[in-house]
Amino acid sequence: MKMSNLLIIGTFILLGIVACQPPEPTIEDLFPKQLNLLQHGIPIAIQTPEDAKVTNRSDNFMQDVIVEGTDYYVQIYSQNATALSCSDLATEAQREIETGANTTFQRMIKEEDCGFIYEVQAAGDTTKCYNFSYYRVQGNKSFSFSTTTGRRKPFTQEQVERIYEAVKAQK
């Protein structure tokens, strides 16, 4: 066989292998259930796992809703807006985490206009945990979405990134 024929055959084999690679899963693939939170006082729908359960801990002053499922945990607070934009809320929260009394904060992983992902690690512990905060202002209400290391099992960076993207895809 000529070298050019081998090159052509090799190219087709390589293209065939690449074409057979499964596509990256979408947020809807990872979290197929769109959960409407309106009945819990939050006029937003978010992508969640099929087994997601809602706990409503709201009182007269603030909506406090937890959505929990397999590899998924989001706490949502809603109250009267203290800022006009989600970026103002995110900037203030990020500054508090980086400079405040949060002694477990290690570094920012991802920073966007309305949210961020960060790494935490307790003193004397080698386990790295990841959290996020994401904000939305709708009318005169602000919504804060977050996950925390105070749950049963810490999330990996990849898990938190997936949940963060699911929250960002809210409707």
What does it look like?
This protein has 171 residues and is an alpha+beta fold. It is built from four helices and nine strands, in the order ααβββββαββββα. The protein has helices at 3-19, 27-30, 86-99, 157-168; strands spanning 33-36, 45-48, 53-56, 63-69, 72-80, 105-112, 115-120, 129-138, 141-147. The radius of gyration is 21 Å and the shape is globular.
Summarize this entry quickly.
With 171 residues, this protein is of the alpha+beta class. It has helices at residues 3-19, 27-30, 86-99, 157-168; strands at 33-36, 45-48, 53-56, 63-69, 72-80, 105-112, 115-120, 129-138, 141-147. The termini are far apart.
Low-confidence stretches: none
Q: Biggest sheet: strands side by side, in what order? A: 3-4-5-9-8-7-6
Shape: globular
Give the N-to-C terminal Cα separation.
Answer: 58 Å
Number of helices: 4
Biggest beta-sheet profile:
7 strands, antiparallel
Order of helices and strands: HHEEEEEHEEEEH
Helix content: 25-40%
Structural class: alpha+beta
